[in-house]
Automatic annotation (TrEMBL):
This is V-type H+-transporting ATPase subunit E. GO terms for cellular component: proton-transporting two-sector ATPase complex, catalytic domain. Belongs to the V-ATPase E subunit family. The keyword Cytoplasm does not apply.
């Protein structure tokens, strides 16, 4: 049986309560949907931010790592170069000490008994190199008598070897404080042969230097090309 007519107050209240309950349920469901969507968007945005920051941190780390590696390599290279420089200086000092000692021995030679024979050979070498009819021998003033005697012997040997004769004049132009030896010249000094002991020692030092380095310090690992020493059969 259907009912007609207006609703009484209790029925109106019941209907109102139903409508309020329906609206509340709809609101709660809508709120849950909004919350779920907000949580999803938050999670996505959070993951995006975390990833960006992670990439940024990784990039900064790699940059700092590379800077640290470069700095370490520079420090290592500097340390190695400084070490090499110290080694080279030490080797150079050692060689200079050897040459200094050799120079002392050369000076001792110029004051000893073997000096006359050495001077004779030096004069003979000058004669053979210049092959001139007139030669000037420059020497230390204190060696004057010795030089003249040695020159006479050298002239005889020169004639036996070359069949030539030459005239020698003498000049006391070397310092008595030098290591001795002679300088031969011809054509008014235009052609010279420096046979002073200092110059001979200098030439010998230059020729012997590679061999000395090899004997004292071993083969150079960085050297790619080698020459045969003119002083000995040692390969450098």
């Amino acid at each position: 049986m259907s009912r007609t007519g207006a609703l009484d107050d209790s029925e109106i209240q019941t209907e109102m309560n139903k409508m309020v309950a329906f609206i509340s349920q709809e609101a709660r469901e809508k709120a849950r949907e909004i919350q779920v969507k907000a949580d999803e968007e938050f999670a996505i945005e959070k993951a995006k931010i975390v990833r960006q920051e992670s990439l940024s941190i990784d990039s900064q780390y790699e940059k700092k790592k590379k800077q640290a590696e470069v700095g370490w390599k520079i420090s290592q290279s500097t340390a190695i170069n400084n070490s090499r420089i110290k080694v080279l200086r030490s080797r150079n000092d050692h060689l200079e000490n050897i040459f200094e000692e050799a120079n002392k021995q050369v000076k001792e030679l110029s004051e000893g008994d073997k000096y006359k024979e050495a001077v004779e050979n030096l004069v003979l070498e000058v004669l053979l190199k210049l092959l001139s009819t007139n030669i000037t021998i420059t020497h230390r003033p204190k060696d004057e008598d010795l030089i003249k005697k040695a020159s006479q012997s050298a002239l005889k040997r020169y004639k036996d070897l070359s069949g030539r004769e030459t005239k020698i004049s003498f000049d006391k132009g070397l310092n008595d404080g030098s290591s001795g030896g002679i300088i031969g010249s011809s054509m008014n000094g235009k052609i010279k042969v420096d046979n002073t002991l200092e110059e001979r020692l200098k030439i010998l030092e230059e020729k012997m230097l590679p061999e000395l380095r090899h004997d004292l310090f071993g083969a150079n690992e960085n050297r790619k090309f080698y020459t045969v020493s003119l002083i000995s059969d040692t390969v450098l």
